[in-house]
Design a protein that fits this description.
Helix content: 25-40%
Number of helices: 5
Shape: globular
Number of strands: 6
Strand content: 15-25%
Amino acid sequence: MATKLFESLTVGPIHSRRLGSSLGINLLPKRGKICSFDCIYCECGWNKDHTLDKAVPSAEDVEKALTEKALQLNKEGIRVDSITFSGNGEPTVHPEFAKIVDITIAIRDKYLRQAKVSVLSNASMIWKKEVRDALMKVDNPILKIDCTDESVLRAVNRPNQRYSLSQTIENLRKFNGNFILQTIFLLILTYF
């Protein structure tokens, strides 16, 4: 499987069909992957293949890198439509995720006012109140449920920690519809 890891804390901006000019933030290791799922289709590859680097940036590292990037983009006149948390795995597993969201919103408000803050998440951590509260602060919490059949979900997403589909759905209800549901269409063929 070909894989793609992001080797810097900020990426882009790149053009995204759904988010426009997107400045990525990778809260995970530069040469590793940390994810609560091990999806069979992940562009970053499987967790077992990227275990050598486990170092995550601190909130202060993120603040410094994002401020420098925002100043550079302003100087060059480059528009950013979205500051997007994605990266090498699941961004909400970062131990300082909630603090980093607050820092990002403050930097956005100061330097990139037109940008929305987006998070691409597998929703596996929304059982944690501090993660859920942080996601409720961003403009675009893009949360994933690939399948409503738990056995298929476990086969495709392969959760590697505490995960309950029913609990995830209950926690999504707490967003009162203020999130974007991301899913994948699966074609399951059976042969007789």
